Amino acid sequence: MQRLVGEVQHYDWGSDQAIPEILGEQPNGQPWAEYWLGAHPKASSVLAGGVTLDQWLADHPEELGRASRDAFGDRLPFLLKILSASHALSIQAHPSREQAERGFAAENEAGVGLGDPTRIFRDDWPKPEMIVALTDFDALCGFRDPSSSLVLLSGLGKLDGLDEVLAPLGQDDGLAKVVATVLSGDEKVVTVVEGVVAASRTYLEEGTDEAVRGLARTAVELSEDHPGDPSILVALLMNRVRLAPGQQIHLGAGTMHAYLGGTGVEIMANSDNVLRGGLTSKYVDVDALLDHAIMTPEPCVGEYAVQVSSGVGLYRAEFPEFRLWALQGHDDTLSLPATDLGRILLVTEGQLVAHCGDEDCELNRGQSAWLPAGEEVTVTGQGRGFLAGAGVDADRS
To answer: Key word Nucleotide-binding present in the record (predicted)?
Structure first.
């Protein structure tokens, strides 16, 4: 058991307050978008002795656990983050394992360098992910039923050109056709989107239907950071969900999504593969996105952890690369699950003390520790936190 210090990512969409507050550090005017805990080669966490976690695991792969090594080799399969957004992230989707392997090999063969900004597949891994809200957290997740979208958009009034753009929604493959048309960036589409945003501003001043107001609010919020971006109309075809603290959504291969605002704990497969569709200054490949994204309606509902033992809740998501537990300290000792795996323990409120044999590790808010496979760890204290591990072992509790 060793203390672990993560790496901060200063992406421009990040909040400048939330992560410094959690870590007990002074804000410095920069956006603190993400705090990474894991062994990602781009920004590995550092152990107490100054060794990076990726180097430590290269020298001590047995700490990953046999089940993880059998499935993923000598590589930590997950990346844990604190994420805090004050602006929307890009509309995006992620590939399946088969798609990632195929795409990675194809780009290698084509000679696209890993540092090339047009490179899409930076590794051959999938990138399923889960976000658990620490504050109210807004996100777009999957497409709503097209008939519902048509009703909501009609609530803004008759808009020039919109009916023509949305006409294919009544067809079996209508979503794919509409998204392709919108993301083409055609000047007529941009004009339509600008009309939708203008009508949305008017509706927020005068309209009363709460569902239509929600759609209008999304359009106006996104246009403030991305004026004229045609993907705003794609966003209006998607489910918008507000997670309460403690709720999660999880996203498999192909699910279109965008985080809009709030602070949460995110866990994902240890991959950099992102297919972007808009709301970003980064490279967008519309054809690649359409080839990989799910273009049929999907539900998006926040879920709480399911209690599996005293003070321990499991967030249900069947991904082999990761599993996440919520920890609530109380007067009794908590026994941490998945002793046959390497795990990361993160405290997000108060204080928890991890015990392993004669060793104690006191963790305050924002602090974390690496727990090697084979170590039976218990926790005391009144704090809250999270435990992350691979999703492949036989211990499902």
So the answer is: no
